[in-house]
Write a structure and sequence with these properties.
The chain is mainly alpha-helical and about 550 residues long. The protein contains 24 helices and seven strands. The strands form two sheets. The chain has a five-stranded parallel sheet with strand order 2-3-4-1-5, with helices on one face. It starts with 5 loop residues before the first helix and ends with a helix. Residues about 495-500 and about 510-535 have low confidence and may be disordered.
């Protein structure tokens, strides 16, 4: 008897045995039981999750002698023929090899005929996304208004490549990846049925390697059973398939943390000699660090917690979350570049040696944060320096004002205290009693300002006095010139009578101007004394002239 693959032998034959797709199986069962049959079904999802199996279950439910039903009997001729794949009314087409419009035209001609023995003629087109654009266009009218006895079931792994016009005419169901725990239970059941002993770690490894695909896990199980015989263990799997294993990877990580370069070189050569692939070693290292990261962040699954014995306290203590993130970034970059490497073994060794300096790794985000922190510190220090400079300048200006005030007080007589100054002094005395030094300084500044104002007034008055003195000298010079002119007239004209001389002198007097008119009105008596003396001297001059 020919060998039957595990995936085919244990293919689900009812919706109740379709594992990991509870939503899809429930929805389709309810649709069949309520006799609400769609013209076309579109099943999508990753490989090995049950798309073709679901399509066959729908065909069974429709053509079972008790159907349409959500629970086909699997005993009638229709159910058994569909299971064996030789039912004439259930036509399975490979979309990858029947992509042309001619294949669709053939289907359009066939659907005009009634089913040979079943209730429905069912077309299952697998990998429907491979059809050409013209083939899809030819299907539009067919699947929108097919004959009552025809149902189309499409299956695809690339839903995004199916035209929207096809999607809108189908009932869509998305099948998901199957959890590892469900795959483990199915593998244990199969090994038990075949009377093969196993250990839990071996089954977990097979389920994990399936990566959500039950068919992939079954295919790997067939391979392992073929070389493990009647006992399936993790040790046999690792030795036969050339796997490093967590224990070996943990030793390498320990060597990296302790910077044992020679031990890293020896262990790597040992793994490569045992048949481990370089890509697999690197993938196991990445997986190991990922598990440590989850343990450190307290978000690990039960599977990781159950295998926590591989992660020694030394590893967990030395590695921080930040360190692990840096190592994983470096590992992913190296994994991407590894496919273009000339000597992968040498580059892997260099990569592991480089990981010994994991504490020196700095991520770009960290550099940006440090630069921003330095900028902030620099700006704050600059502001403090500016404040200190401003404060120093303010203090120096206050000192200059105080010095000028003191020098002015020493050079100029103390002015009379006004009422406002008296008030300020009283306030100063009051503040002295209260001990308010700040208010003292403010009052002293006020007094200094008023004193400066009085001194500026005195300076202006002094300038005005100097101007008047200059004008007086000029007047005196004019008078001297007049006298000289009068003397010339007297000598040149001796025949003129004294009366006429007197008139001329009086006339000259009238031409001269009075000194008192030159004096400003706002000059005090003390300030005009000098000018009064000059006025007397001028009168004496005039009298002498009259005498002459």
């Amino acid at each position: 008897m020919a060998h039957t693959a595990t995936a085919t032998e244990y293919r689900p034959q009812s919706f109740s045995t379709l594992v990991g797709q509870d939503f899809v199986s429930t929805a389709i069962k309810n649709s069949l039981n309520s006799q609400k049959i769609a013209n076309a079904f579109l099943l999508s999802g990753p490989r090995g999750v049950g798309k073709t199996t679901t399509a066959r279950l729908i065909a069974k439910g429709l053509n079972c002698i008790h159907g349409p039903t959500g629970e086909p009997c699997n005993e009638c001729i229709q159910c058994t023929s569909i299971k064996e794949g030789n039912n004439s009314d259930v036509i399975e087409i490979d979309g990858a090899s029947n992509t042309s419009i001619n294949n669709i035209k053939t289907i359009q001609e066939e659907i005009q005929y009634l089913p040979a023995a079943a209730k429905y003629k069912i077309y299952i087109i697998d990998e429907v996304h491979m059809l050409s654009k013209s083939a899809f266009n030819a299907l539009l009218k067919t699947i929108e208004e097919p004959p009552e006895h025809v149902v189309f079931i499409f299956a695809t792994t690339e839903l995004n490549e199916v035209p929207a016009t096809i999607k809108s005419r189908c009932q869509q169901f998305n099948l998901r990846l199957i959890p590892s725990s469900i795959i483990e239970k199915n593998i244990e059941k199969i090994l038990t049925d075949k009377n093969i002993s196993f250990d839990a770690n071996g089954v977990k490894w097979i389920a994990k390697e399936g990566k959500g695909s039950l068919r992939d896990a079954y295919t790997l199980l067939d391979q392992i059973i073929s070389f493990c015989g009647d006992e399936v263990t993790l040790e046999k799997i690792q030795s036969k398939l050339g796997l490093a294993g967590k224990e070996q990877i943990a030793q390498i990580i320990s060597f990296i943390l302790n910077e044992q370069l020679m031990d890293i070189h020896t262990k790597l050569n040992e793994l490569l000699s045992s048949g481990c692939r370089i890509e697999q070693i690197l993938a196991d290292i990445i997986s190991f660090f990922r598990d440590i990261l989850l343990l450190k962040s307290q978000s690990s699954s039960d599977d990781i917690k159950n295998n926590s014995g591989y992660y020694s306290p030394e590893i967990l203590e030395k590695l921080s979350i930040y360190d692990i993130e840096n190592i994983l970034d470096l590992a992913f970059d190296f994994y991407e570049k590894l496919k273009y490497s000339i000597n992968q073994e040498m580059e892997l060794e260099f990569f592991l040696i480089k990981l010994t300096k994991y504490k020196d790794f700095i991520r770009p985000g960290t550099l940006l944060k440090q630069i921003k922190a330095l900028q902030t510190a620099f700006l704050e220090k600059k502001k403090l320096n500016e404040l200190e400079i401003t404060k120093t300048q303010h203090n120096s200006s206050e000192n200059i004002v105080k010095k000028e005030a003191v020098s002015i007080e020493n050079n100029v007589a103390q002015p009379k205290i006004t009422e406002s100054q008296t008030t300020n002094i009283e306030a100063l005395d009051l503040n002295k009693k209260n001990g308010s030094e700040k208010e003292k300084i403010n009052i002293q500044k006020t007094i200094s300002i008023e004193q400066q104002s009085n001194i500026s007034q005195k300076i202006e008055t002094t300038k005005k006095s100097e101007n008047i003195a200059v004008q007086t000298v000029e007047i005196k010079n004019n008078i001297d010139e007049k006298e000289a002119n009068i003397q010339k007239i007297i000598h040149n004209d001796d025949n003129v009578e004294s009366i006429s001389k007197t008139e001329k002198i009086e006339e000259n007097k009238s031409q001269s101007f009075s000194l008192s008119s030159l004096l400003p009105n706002n000059i005090n008596t003390n300030e005009t004394s000098y000018y009064e003396i000059n006025k007397k001297n001028l009168k004496e001059i005039f009298s002498c002239t009259e005498y002459r």
